[in-house]
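Researcher: If convenient, please comment on what follows.
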Amino acid sequence: MKNCNWSWRFATPAIAAELGDRPELLLEAGREVKSNPVRQVFRCGDYFLKYDKRSGRRLRSEWNCAQLIEREGIQLVEHLALGESSAGSILITRAFPEAEAVSDYFYRTYIEQPGEPAVFLNNFVHFARKVLESRLYHPDFHIGNVLYSPGLNRFALVDAQGVRKAGWFDRWFRRYSMERIGMEFRFSRTRHQMLKLLAALGIADPEEFYVEALVRESAALWHEWPRRRRQALAGYPKFSVQDGSLLRTVDPLRRTVPLENYEVLEGESALVESLFLSHFFLQLAQIPHRRVLALDRRNRQVYLEKISSSTVPTAAADYQERLNALDIHSETRDWGKDEFGRISLWNLDLIRLYV
């Protein structure tokens, strides 16, 4: 990169010595991992470099937010340096060792597999309570913005943007946007387990919070569903990918779901499309269900996960309360329980009428 009169500030003198006189040159040696028209993220060894082509105000704000978080004693990915010039600004952070987002780790370890996450969640609660009980307001506090390193058994915030000292309005009217982080684990947790988790997070009345949260989360889903519906049908990478004539499902880890152990259902275009969409609606609602693997619009077919011979009909248990919040009612015949005792909604016809 040309010398554009970069001005650098470093976290410590030791970091300044580590990065040298021209840290901007790390961009040329780095590998791009994310990009949009105005911002790029590169990885170079153990460093991440966020390069914003606009004025330095945005990354400068993030740098200041990071310092605020560190002063509260909250673990954050290490912010090393901020550079500003006429060409834009660069924020350099250190990679958190062998870490992945809590959302990804939880899905891979405790949803894909029949594991028990109690110990992991206890550790997460210890970290999350420190954030919730701090004097800060984080406008985007969710498990995708928290990293977990299994080797270190440590958590760290990865996104500091917008964090500020909590004002009166934040504490009274925006509190839910942070406390709802516990609700993001409800996919594999019973009502009783959720209430214990919410209590451990310091929620004063877990029962009242849980009931209200189901209503608020459901209202948010209905509000955003038209956009999510369009994205799923358009091959938006978070949900689906076009593969020849097939629009294939992408799982929460951005992996294309394998076409195996499935059955094909043929029908009218509206029918197969609505069954396909039912999968994404239930995924966003965090309700276990029979997966849809692919949609073939040209041949009017949908590929459904085959129901295991060991699956038996069962009552909805706690999940009916969650469907009630969506104003959807189910019967025992709509649900199945597998050999591990996991309950899933198998009758997608129940959902397709709404999506």
